[in-house]
Amino acid sequence: MRMTRGKSNRWRLGVVAAATLAAAWFGAPAGAAELSSQVSYLYSSVSIFPPTVKGMTVCYGFVCRRRYELAFTAGDRAALSRIMAAGKASAAAERAAVQKAVVWLDRRLGPVLGTDKRIARADFRYFDDKHNFDCWDTTRNTTSLLLVMQEWGLFKYHSVGDPKYRGNVLVLQTPHNTAVLIERATGVQWVVDMWTRAYAQSPEVMPVDQWVKLD
């Protein structure tokens, strides 16, 4: 179908208006300009939107088969800001604060989703998807939280990196993936791995080079 110039201009204006309305309603994606293809794939692969400064889609039930739309309140932002403010002294202190922020998210979601009953290293073999996350869920959820906090300006020493994967059947290493932070001063990549810990326990935080050798 061929558009006349007048119709074409009206169509473009309509698209711009719709995009503007969507941005005003939903908020711009957190770190939208910086999302790598690997981070974007976390969301596109399960047909959800990336997080925004206003909220995030929480995945649970294994490979995001169950979902919950978390809208951040002013109280949520204040709580996370207080947690991260305690980590301003050093990069190590900031990573410790990130651990507390992930625990905060776990506690925030647990009573709502029923994931306060979750166990460490859960997968389909436990037949309890409605109470648990698999490692894909925790990677998405943790990455989303990190992106939101980054957009809020709560990181001084780190930025959000691409998720990392490990798994080598030749040495009986099981498949697993995790969220990642990059230390700006050194370029060292640090995992923030929630899946290997039970409800409300601090996630594992260690260099990627160390994490990839574990099982």
Automatic annotation (TrEMBL):
Keywords: Signal
Species per Swiss-Prot/TrEMBL record: Rhodopseudomonas thermotolerans
Protein name: Uncharacterized protein
Signal peptide (UniProt feature, chain positions): 1-32
